[in-house]
C-alpha cells in the first residue's frame, strides 16, 4: 500500500505536530535535492518501527562532533535515538560503561552482522601499532579493523575522521589517519561528513536517505554526499552582496566588521570550501540555527581536506568561480577594480546566473 503522509504523521511520537512533521520531511527531501513527491516515502521511513542499529566508535577526537549532534533541534537527539536509529554503542552516550558496554557492543555486532551502520568520529592513530588511542585496553585501530567489515556501511563524521583533522596536523606524531585510508582495501562503503564540527543535519539526512531508500546517497570523489557538499559556501553566503560590491571588514571590530561586511580580507575560506553551512544552519543558538560567518567569524575551511588545517588562518582564499563580478574592488589577488572589471563582472554574473538556471532546469542533474 502507498505510504500516506497523514497516516504516518499520526503515528509520530514525542509531541511533534503533524504540521512540523511534514515540514521536517519536506525539508529533508529538499536537502537531498528531491521533490515533494518523495515526502510520503520519507515519512514512512522515519516512522517505521524498523530502526537501523548504529554503533558509534570514537578515535582521536574532542567530542565536538557528538556535541554538535546533541544540539540538533529538528529532530532532537532523543527523537533521533529513540525514533530513527537504534544507538547500540557510543562511548559518549552509553548508559553503561566498562565491561558492560564492551560486552553489549560485541553482542550487538554479532546480532546485526551486515546490517548495522558504523559511525566513527576522530582520526585513527596507526604509529606504534595504534597505542596512542585505546578503548578498554585495545587500540581503536584494531577495533575499527574488526568492526568495519561486519557493517553495512561506515560514516566517518567530522574532519578528523574524514581527513585526519587536528590530530594529523604536522608533524602528526601519532600517525593519525583518516578512516577511509584504513579501510581502503577492504571494499567497505565509507561516507565522509567532514566539518569541525560537522553539520549534524548532513549526518541525519544521510541516515534518513539510507532509511528511505536502503542505500547511501550519491557521493562525490571525496566520498562526501553530493546533496551537502556540491556548492561553495561563498555561493550562498549572506555577505556575498558585500563581496560583490567591494565592501570588506579590514580588521576584527572595525566599522566594516560591525556593519556585517564580507570577511574575505580576514581570511574567509568560503570561496574554496564546499559545504552547505550558509544554507543549512546548525548550532541551535537561534530558531534558524547559526553558522560561523553569521557570527562574524571567517569560515576557515574546516570541512575542506586541504584548506582547514593546512592554510594559514589569514591567507586569502583562491577565488576560482566564474561569478563573482569583482566589480568595484581589488580584494582578489591579481584583480583590479574599475570600469573594465565592472563590465567583466556584469558579464560574469550573467554567465553564472545562466549556469544556475540550467542546472535547475535539468531535473536529471544533481
Ligand atoms: Fe573535534 Fe573537530 Fe575533530 Fe570533530 S572534527 S572531533 S569537532 S576537532
Ligand atoms: Fe561570505 Fe566569506 Fe564569501 Fe565573504 S568571502 S561572501 S564572508 S563566504
Ligand atoms: Fe566550517 Fe566554514 Fe562551515 S569553518 S562550519 S565550513 S562556514
Outline the secondary-structure elements.
Blueprint: H1 5-11, H2 18-31, H3 39-46, E1 53-58, H4 64-70, H5 77-84, E2 86-90, H6 98-111, E3 117-121, E4 124-125, E5 134-135, E6 138-139, H7 140-147, E7 153-157, H8 159-163, E8 176-177, H9 179-182, E9 190-193, H10 200-213, H11 226-229, H12 240-245, H13 255-258, H14 339-361
Parallel strand pairs: 1-2, 1-3, 3-7, 7-9
Antiparallel strand pairs: 4-8, 5-6
Helix pairs in contact: 2-3, 3-10
Bound molecules: iron/sulfur cluster (2 copies) and FE3-S4 cluster.
The site of one iron/sulfur cluster has 13 residues, from helix 4 and helix 8.
Question: What can you see in these coordinates?
Answer:
This protein folds into two domains: 51-203, Rossmann fold (3-Layer(aba) Sandwich), CATH 3.40.50.700; 231-366, Cytochrome-c3 Hydrogenase, Chain A, domain 2 (Irregular). Strands 2-1-3-7-9 form a five-stranded parallel sheet, sandwiched between helices. A two-stranded antiparallel ribbon has the order 4-8. The chain has helices spanning 5-11, 18-31, 39-46, 64-70, 77-84, 98-111, 140-147, 159-163, 179-182, 200-213, 226-229, 240-245, 255-258, 339-361, and strands at residues 53-58, 86-90, 117-121, 124-125, 134-135, 138-139, 153-157, 176-177, 190-193. It is α/β, with parallel strands linked by helices and 366 residues long. Residues 1-10 and 325-366 have low confidence and may be disordered. It is built from 14 helices and nine strands. It is globular and about 60 Å long. Residues 195, 233, 273, 275, 277, 291-293, 299-303 line the site of FE3-S4 cluster.
Amino acid at each position: 500500500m502507498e505510504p500516506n503522509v497523514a497516516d504516518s504523521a499520526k503515528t509520530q511520537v514525542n509531541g511533534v505536530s503533524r504540521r512540523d512533521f511534514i515540514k521536517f520531511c519536506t525539508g529533508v527531501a529538499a536537502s537531498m535535492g528531491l521533490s515533494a513527491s518523495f515526502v510520503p516515502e520519507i515519512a514512512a521511513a522515519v516512522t517505521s518501527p524498523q530502526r537501523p542499529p548504529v554503533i558509534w566508535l570514537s578515535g582521536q577526537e574532542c567530542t565536538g562532533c557528538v556535541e554538535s549532534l546533541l544540539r540538533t533541534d529538528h529532530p532532537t537527539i532523543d527523537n533521533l535515538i529513540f525514533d530513527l536509529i537504534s544507538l547500540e554503542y557510543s562511548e559518549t552516550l552509553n548508559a553503561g560503561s566498562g565491561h558492560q558496554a564492551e560486552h553489549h557492543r560485541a553482542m550487538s555486532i554479532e546480532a546485526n552482522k551486515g546490517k548495522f551502520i558504523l559511525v566513527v568520529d576522530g582520526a585513527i592513530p596507526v604509529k606504534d601499532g595504534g597505542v596512542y588511542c585505546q578503548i578498554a585496553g585495545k587500540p581503536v585501530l584494531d577495533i575499527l579493523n574488526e568492526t568495519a567489515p561486519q557493517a553495512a556501511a561506515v560514516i566517518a563524521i567530522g574532519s578528523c575522521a574524514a581527513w585526519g583533522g587536528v590530530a594529523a596536523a604536522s608533524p602528526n606524531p601519532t600517525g593519525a589517519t583518516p578512516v577511509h585510508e584504513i579501510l581502503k582495501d577492504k571494499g567497505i562503503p565509507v561516507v565522509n561528513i567532514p566539518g569541525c564540527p560537522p553539520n549534524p543535519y548532513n549526518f541525519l539526512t544521510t541516515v534518513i536517505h539510507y532509511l528511505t531508500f536502503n542505500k547511501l546517497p550519491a557521493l562525490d570523489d571525496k566520498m562526501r554526499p553530493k546533496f551537502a557538499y556540491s556548492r561553495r559556501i561563498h555561493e550562498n553566503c549572506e555577505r556575498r552582496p558585500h563581496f560583490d560590491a567591494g565592501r570588506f571588514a579590514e580588521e576584527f571590530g572595525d566599522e566594516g566588521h560591525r556593519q556585517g561586511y564580507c570577511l574575505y580580507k580576514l581570511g574567509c575560506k568560503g570561496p574554496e570550501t564546499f559545504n552547505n553551512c550558509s544554507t543549512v544552519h546548525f548550532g541551535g543558538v537561534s530558531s534558524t540555527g547559526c553558522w560561523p560567518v553569521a557570527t562574524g567569524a571567517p569560515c576557515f575551511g574546516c570541512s575542506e581536506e586541504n584548506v582547514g588545517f593546512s592554510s594559514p588562518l589569514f591567507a586569502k582564499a583562491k577565488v576560482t568561480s566564474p561569478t563573482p563580478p569583482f566589480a568595484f574592488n581589488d580584494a582578489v589577488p591579481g584583480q583590479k577594480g574599475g570600469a573594465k572589471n565592472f563590465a567583466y563582472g556584469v558579464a560574469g554574473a550573467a554567465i553564472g546566473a545562466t549556469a544556475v538556471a540550467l542546472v535547475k532546469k535539468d531535473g536529471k542533474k544533481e
